[in-house]
């Protein structure tokens, strides 16, 4: 029983010294581990700026949580420091995270304002896309010298603008239709999608990939070093059991070699210990954290990484997969997407847009597709599946701001899916309309 007259909050924290180091995206480490070779490649690619040549375009790719952005920021700072000491004209913009922009207009608008003073900012609307590009070229020419633009999660640039944007910007100085004559432009693109370059037009590949740097996943030993560094800063002295960091490192290495995941495990384990009023963080706390980390990460996608339309498409794909037919075709996904969007009062986009949303989810590694030839019927269709456990996805959706879009009977159908694709819910001959009636939309 809770005594309502007592204040439940505690003014002290016996577990954490500083939690910020466990938030990798907001903390800049003093030490970078196990990236000496990648740093060497980076320095070699940008050395041309210091010795008087044009900046190179650099494409950096690898999975999430493997140090791409941290290394880029460190190299950027060292480059600026050297340029300043040598009196070399250099302006660096970014990293700008492309995930936050759903159109080329919005991204270029932001780039323009990065150059401008606060009192002279470009409004968010009111100009054509060609106009904001022209403003960008004018700003680049106005600062002159070497201009380096860093775009993080570059694979999130909208598909309809991607090829033009990534081709035109690095070549702006050579284009006689732009006002750039003296400035030298270089682009650094950072991508979580290892196949991103493969879907670009050949001319864009040639331009963007002048220098490519691949970041592979960390192994368990490397993760132990890195997580140990962050843990020493984040936790109070002597509260971590000796198995905690090795266990978090081993789990993260088995999954995908992701530092961010390891930090989440450490944070979650610490919170479990704190909730229990324990003196320290144990192996049991860490194992409990690993059991819930998948749902937590997917919840993060729903709340922070996906647009509302991407989130609804992701949920619809998962629902299509757990239905008795277990076939998530594009048409089926769209029908379910329409129903959950409508039932939750959200805007329903066209079927054509679903292909775009699925493509974006695929680039983020959340779904994958297989092409099926229809034989004599002619044509082809794509069947999708999710890359995470459907149970984790649905649990995350139920905890997210999209819980109102989840059908009320989802747990029952999920239970039959887990029991196995068969028995009483097997319905290979049902029509799409009949299949739709399985769901209870509120």
UniProtKB/TrEMBL annotation:
Gene Ontology BP terms: DNA replication
UniProt keyword annotations, A-Z: ATP-binding, DNA replication, Nucleotide-binding
SMART domains hit by this protein: Cdc6_C
UniProt entry tagged with the keyword Nucleotide-binding: yes
InterPro entries: AAA_22, Cdc6_C, Cdc6_lid, ORC1/CDC6, Orc1/Cdc6_arc, P-loop_NTPase, WH-like_DNA-bd_sf, WH_DNA-bd_sf
Cross-referenced CDD domains: Cdc6_C (cd08768)
Annotated Cdc6 C-terminal domain residues: 314-398
Kinase in keyword set: no
Residues annotated for ATP binding in this entry: 66-70, 218
Molecular functions (GO terms): ATP binding; ATP hydrolysis activity
Pfam families: AAA_22 (PF13401), Cdc6_lid (PF22703), WHD_Cdc6 (PF09079)
Superkingdom, natural source: Archaea
Role played: Involved in regulation of DNA replication.
Record-stated family: Belongs to the CDC6/cdc18 family.
Protein name in the entry: ORC1-type DNA replication protein
Source species of the chain: Haloarcula terrestris
